[in-house]
Amino acid sequence: MKIAILSMQDVYNFGSLLQAYGLKKTISQVMPDAEICYLPIEPNASDNSIAEKAVSHCEEDKRNFDKFFFYRFVNKLSNKKQNIKFQEFQRKNFIECESSTKVDVCVIGSDEVFNCCNADTWGFTTQLFGNVKNANRIITYAASCGFATIDTINCEMQKRIKEAFTRVSAFSVRDIGTEKFVKALTTTPVEFHLDPVLITDFEQEINAVKDTIKIPDNLCVIYSYHNRIHDTAEIAEIKKFAKAHGLRLVTIGASQKWISDMLVLNPFEVLFVFSKAKFIITDTFHGTIFASKYNGKFATLLRKSNNNKLSDLVKRLSIEDHVISDFSELENTYKKASSKERVNEIIENERLRTINYLKENLV
What we know:
six-stranded parallel sheet, about 40% helix
């Protein structure tokens, strides 16, 4: 059997890479004899011509010189090194097949494969919604719309997605917002499953890299999009909190203009660092996954742009006590007990549901 995964494996983001890797690893456990490859996302000029204006997460500071000028210069070099790490991981782990290669099953997911309003290089393409011509059968796994909703896309986009959805035989989503989106455009039943990063066992991969990294006892990880934490008041609150507890602030994955220390890592090293950090501050979906699964001492900030998917994750993992609406709440969250044990109990139960879903829909 030949199985293709249509996912976000080309994105320079730890969550995107780990979920794509994790989905393949999980599928290979269910179908050990299957040949698994990744399909590249194909831009579609006809589809994209009707799309609404996309939105980007980038919060780049446009000033050429200020008190963070040196930090930005150093981080620019670190970002280049990090991109090389991303590329190395992609070359090693993601074997892509030609779009014309016939496959028995195409699995679309996970990550924001249904986010047709995001500022990605491929834009809006119905391929991500089931318009995969070289697949005999198409299913999804833990797909997400991100911040997109049925109300944010125009009638022509809805029409094209509805048509693409007719080719999908089984729908799996990871949040209630995506369920509402899918149900508005198809009558096929929809199931909920956790992101592949949660249900995949990365212990072997982590053990292979843990001896190569030294982690200080007072590490506080900042995990966010590039320069998204840029508000003066937010920065002041984080610095005050870190100083009060003697924590060393580092950023991972993307630079923040006010932090000079950015760790350049591969995806498995990131999971190890998260497991050893004293505390984690994040405002992202996968940052919350890394922190809850591997650490348990963290704070997650809900923003308007991530509330659609992140609030749902928080409820599913029962980690509401780690959610903050403002960085002034860090102190209270820091005092909370680790949630790692209860989160991993939930993961174990959900892993069984994932295996059953894949067994039922891949054969």
